[in-house]
Amino acid sequence: MEQLAIVLIVLIFLMGLMVPVLRPLLKNYTGRILALVPFALFGALTFLFFSLPDETARIVETGFGFLPEMQFSFRIDGLSLIFGMMVSGIGGLVLGYSSFYMAKYAGKTKFYFFLILFMGAMLGLVFADNLLALFIFWELTSITSFFLIGFDHDKDKPRQAALQALLITALGGLCLLFAVIMIGNLAGTFRLSELYSQGFHFGAHSQYQTVFLLIFVAVATKSAQFPFHFWLPGAMNAPTPISAYLHSATMVNAGIFLLLRLNPVMGGTIAWKGALILTGGITMFIGAFFSLGQKDLKRILAFTTISALGTMVMLIGMNTTASIKAALIFFIVHGLYKGGLFMVAGIIDKNTGTRDITRLSGLLKSMPVTSIAGILALLSMSGLPPMLGFIGKELIYDAKVQMPELSWLVVPLGVAANMMMVAISILVFYEIFIPRKNKPAIALLHKEKELPGNFLAGPVILALIGLGLGMAPGWLNNILSNAMFYVQSQAVDVHLTLWHGFNQVLLLSIFTVAMGTVIFILRRPVGKLVGIIIPWTDQYHLPEKFNNLISNYLSFAGKHTNRIQHGYHRYYLITFFMATLLLIVYQLLSAGGEWFHPSESSPVRMHVVLVLIISAMAVLFAVFSKSRLSAIVSMGVLGYGVAVLYMFYGAVDLAITQFLAETIIMVIFVMVIFYLPDFAVLSSKKSRIRDAIIALSVGAMMTMIVLKARFINLEEPISQFFAEKSYLEGHGRNIVNVILVDFRALDTLGEITVLALAAAGVFTLLRFNPIKKKSEK
Amino acid sequence: MRNIVLERIVSLFLYVMVGFALFLLFRGHNRPGGGFIGGIIAAAGFLLYGIVFGSEKVLEKIRVNPRYIMGSGLLIALLAALIPMTLGKPPLTGVWTSLAGIALGTPLLFDIGVFVLVVGMIVSIFTNIMDVLKWNS
């Protein structure tokens, strides 16, 4: 079954790559049919979910890898199962949902292509057993999400949001790479299973602070923690199915996953606790706070996601058994309700044409199914029974109250954030679902019955799962125990119940709900307060600051590039030749030794001299010629002269090639030259003298190299090796050719690639002229 | 002004050139020749043909877009690089079999790739230049 699960993950990747081929075949059913694979994976994982014994992890080796240290091996344990089931299950629902949502969009192929690859990357990340493989999948999610966020690439805003998300998450990705390499070097292995079994923990190591900082930046950027949180609200410029997926189970949760994965290796130190609790707390609070001031349903949800991510980071930072358990449960809770709410927002948007909560109202009557799914999700979000959200929130409070040194800080922060969550839930519920007298019910484009089942299925199923798990949380006990074992590296028995008894935590909950209701009732003054604070913080509007930073950087780089890359071919050549000249002449002179050995002098051969004289004359003629055509022809004479010299010394292949290349070049030159204007003397005498000096010195340098080369042998010459092996192992008597296609085939492969690129360059230079094309038509 | 004698000779000569190029390609492993040289000679045949008949006729003659020829050359060479990998050897290792006493191997395939690419490249370049210059007699 483990193998099947891994095969299905690979299949998801293949499926993503095949989308351009599959979509014309499947037409409008693409989303629904492709959703079957994630569902199959979900099924396989469910089976494992029930059959995986406590305190075991299954490792699946694929035997495929880029390096010995970088094998794509996968591990299935409680943690990866929880994340994997959320990713595959919600992924399947999102695909089915997209089928209708995206029906009228252009570029559906692109959409499915990146969405499915993104899903595959996320699954790979979650199941990876090798830290380097994990990094690769991590980067893949960044790249594919860039394309998903910027799906409406012809609009300015999504493009900017996508670029911002990419730059920020790529920064984190680089940090992760360094961190992973450092961990690998410290531990001597990149495999999680070995790290876990060795009980490796380097909290006391001198490099721990560096690694932790890198990991922290990686997590904070990916999971939108303060001060990197600002890319996430921008990311909701993507179509709603993508937002639903990015926010609920994937992308931003990758950071949470990484923290949980690395907890046994580096968790629990002072730095870990301090940094995570502080950032998580701040993020939790400001996310909830900003959500109060928003009008756009998706924006509200985006800010509550930030708050939820902050909660999870903080819980992981607290690093107690209770807090890790709470974090795991809260991940499930949040995935279920946030996915559902985003899908509900998408349905409402599609069916009414707006997401503005001040304009929406009375949907409970006109769209009962959607509304009930939405209301259940809202219940879960505000942490009310009988939803799973209630259990999640109880556990969070429990963990916070139990935190001995810091409960004075985390409890009020958490209660405040939750109060705002409750308030925003009631606000959304009141504004958009309840029919009201002073606000006309909004007109629908379709009746709810006319919406296809797969469109409504997503939120309904997620809401029902949230409800079901709330009623019977015992289902999660086993898997949570297993996950806890690998996160906390100690065996923990988990027993979840809906009813905890009447205690301090329940009192806190009641207080939270009561205060949330108060905030809701006082929403006008609170709204005003938020309205004052938000413009004030907007002076420090981070997205714009970030954009300014990037554009300043680009213009700075542009200026300097213009100075270095001036575009004058002659100066490039001068730079190139002078640098080479100085370096090589210095080397040659400092090498010492003899330049010429008398015993090597051989009788002067007249025919060679003759060829040399002709070539030299051709060069002189080319230099002083007044006509382009004759200059070119005399250069051709030089080329042929060189080819003849090759012939004299027995390099037949070389000579043939030289002859042929020279011929083709001549013909093409002549073709083009015919259309060029006559020679004109544009350069001053001074610069011509300078050029002549450079040319002569480069010639002198080449002569020196050739003379000296015979006395310098840095390595044993390998011509003997080629001569010996050519026929025996290369099956060829023509050594030149065997070298080209066998011994040095990689060089040749590179060279022919360059040839192809050159031809492509010629093509684009000659043909890419949009203005001319239009005028011709 | 048409020159019928020249046209006849050139259109016959094209086949001679391409045939000779193929000959050089296949004998290249033991005597002077090889993919690169063969490729240039075949391309020179097309170039000659193009000078007399114009670039459109060349494209008609080879039927396929020369850029596709170029691409397939690159793919053939890549294939020759990948075949050894399926046998668990490093890429580009020569893999040889013998057919009726003649040794055949991936280096030959590689050489064919070079040949195809060079033909495609030169034909692509000169037909483009001729097109832009309106060289269609």
Automatic annotation (TrEMBL), chain B:
<dbReference type="Pfam" id="PF04039">
    <property type="entry name" value="MnhB"/>
</dbReference>
<dbReference type="GO" id="GO:0005886">
    <property type="term" value="C:plasma membrane"/>
</dbReference>
<comment type="similarity">
    <text>Belongs to the CPA3 antiporters (TC 2.A.63) subunit B family.</text>
</comment>
<dbReference type="InterPro" id="IPR007182">
    <property type="entry name" value="MnhB"/>
</dbReference>
<dbReference type="InterPro" id="IPR050622">
    <property type="entry name" value="CPA3_antiporter_subunitB"/>
</dbReference>
<feature type="transmembrane region" description="Helical">
    <location>
        <begin position="99"/>
        <end position="126"/>
    </location>
</feature>
<keyword id="KW-1003">Cell membrane</keyword>
<feature type="transmembrane region" description="Helical">
    <location>
        <begin position="35"/>
        <end position="55"/>
    </location>
</feature>
<protein>
    <submittedName>
        <fullName>Multisubunit sodium/proton antiporter MrpB subunit</fullName>
    </submittedName>
</protein>
<keyword id="KW-0812">Transmembrane</keyword>
<feature type="transmembrane region" description="Helical">
    <location>
        <begin position="12"/>
        <end position="29"/>
    </location>
</feature>
<keyword id="KW-1133">Transmembrane helix</keyword>
<keyword id="KW-0472">Membrane</keyword>
<feature type="domain" description="Na+/H+ antiporter MnhB subunit-related protein">
    <location>
        <begin position="5"/>
        <end position="123"/>
    </location>
</feature>
<feature type="transmembrane region" description="Helical">
    <location>
        <begin position="67"/>
        <end position="87"/>
    </location>
</feature>
